[in-house]
Amino acid sequence: MTPKILVFAGSIRTGAYSGQTADAAMKELAQQGAEVTRISLVDYPLPIMDEDLEREKGIPENVYRLGRLIAAHDAVLIASPEYNASIPPLLKNTIDWVSRLSKDNGKPLRPWAGKPIALCSSSDGNFAGIRGLYHLRAVLMNCKADIITPQCSVARAQDAFDTDGSFRDERTRGMMEAVCRGLIERAKLTSTRVGA
User: Fold this and answer.
1) 196 in a domain, yes or no?
2) pTM (2 decimals)?
């Protein structure tokens, strides 16, 4: 089985370190034999999560689009920046909206439940976004996602990437290799993708 893995960053800023980290993950996953889909959250704009809005207008179509995409993959890798030692609002809002899904055209749809997820982070400081991953892990676990233990945190991200997008530092390369290997192994063991 060739695992299908969805990759996205928690930032849509031009030149975002998390985007560069997601690109590095995409390359490594492909090298290790996975079929990779790389998306940007800029293509799935969403209003701020609001239960009044949900009651009045229903769940936005972009939530269903994302939910179906997550469900159609064996695993997900998220590369996140860190905002004030926590989760960036774009990513938190996306996770919250997708967690509202329970059905799609009468069929069960709970995209996060049991889904293997790998977490990566990046920042321009020495903490490498690790503090934000603590909160991100807790939120996704509350959504019943299956978070793998290895993670890759890119410190001093402004200097971390070579011109071809690869990591300059051998230790960071090793972390990413381990994360991708762990995610592929978990995906093969627990595939629950819809429409497989």
Assistant:
1) no
2) 0.95
d(CA 49, CA 97): 6
d(CA 69, CA 122): 25
Q: What percent of the chain has pLDDT over 90?
A: 91
CATH number of domain containing 26? 3.40.50.360
**69 in any annotated domain:** yes
pLDDT tens by residue, 76-119: 999 999 999 999 999 999 999 999 999 999 999 999 999 999 99
CA dihedral 170, 119, 186, 7 (to 10 degrees): -90
- Is residue 136 within 8 A of residue 89, CB to CB? The reply is no
Number of separate domains in the chain: 1
Q: Where are the alpha helices (DSSP H) in 33-166?
A: 51-57, 61-71, 89-99, 130-142
